[in-house]
Amino acid sequence: MYKLLAFVLLVCAINSSFFLFLSDITPFMLTKNIINLPWSLITFQFCHLSQMHLVENIIGFVLVGFIATELNLNLKEFSFAYFAAVFVVIPLIFLLPYNDPIAGNSSGIYGVLSLVLLKSRKLIPLKLILPLFTLFMFSSSILDFVGYDPCNERCFQGEFYHFMGFVSGAVVSSIPTRKPKCMLREL
Hints:
With 187 residues, this protein is mainly α. It is 64% helix and 0% strand. The chain contains nine helices and no strands. It has helices at 2-21, 40-43, 51-70, 75-87, 89-95, 106-119, 126-137, 139-145, 153-174. Helix 3 (51-70) packs parallel to helix 6 (106-119). The relative contact order is 0.14.
């Protein structure tokens, strides 16, 4: 139980350290120039473009971590959902036409949020989770489309990465986990 919270706090501490102690995070962000910066495959999740970006991610991750702890989710499932959602964006950087670097672990946070929502189906019915959060994630692009919000391609790119993190968390939550076999003790 506390291992999960320790994992969340460790990731938040690494995020904060990157922000506080690195004056230039550019070499650590994920870009299409990955051949020259192979470490960015790991480090991009700890980079944040602004103090607000960092604070939003920390608050979101800690809240989801506490909810996951209350639901008695195990660290293995939680961390697998987190890393699957973080790393799902790596192939997308080469498939999408954008050249902006990727920084932050928002997709991982959306992945564990999806896991938590699907594991707590009593709170929100399953058939509402994906449509509601899809609408929520793409709200800026939808408002831009109807002319109310000046969203641009970069905004849509971030929303798309968040959505892919959310979907990967849903996929991870649907993977059946093996339950330990009950064995009778020998007397």
